[in-house]
């Protein structure tokens, strides 16, 4: 079996600068936490003017992956649990935050959330990532 390559070629749907259909989010790392601003466009909607839950889940997954990468670890998501709490509307600014909660020999536990301006939680997630060695 060929070893999986975890190479970044700039086409990640969430953060890739070369992906013409991507979200182009820019993640920042500070004090062990990852954050990014997200202003979803019409292409992110499910029902009229509501951001699709799959897009929200995708963004949370990427933020948790960035938290792991920022600590110099390579990993893949093996479990993702998302709790959608409030709607996010197309065009509304939101803040994404993620952090590592626990690091084991191979398993890394992470958490993330998306909040609207004003602090209302849109969704929270937790994930388990497996170190890729």
Provide a concise account of the structure shown.
By secondary structure, the protein is mostly beta strands. It has one helix and six strands, in the order ββαββββ.
Key features?
single chain, 133 residues, mainly beta, Thiol Ester Dehydrase, Chain A, 1 helix, 38% strand, globular
Descriptive overview:
The chain has one domain: Thiol Ester Dehydrase, Chain A. Helix content is 13%, strand content 38%. The chain contains one helix and six strands, in the order E-E-H-E-E-E-E. Strands 1-2-4-5-6-3 form a six-stranded antiparallel beta sheet, with helices on one face. The protein is globular and about 45 Å long. The model has no long low-confidence stretch (mean pLDDT 94).
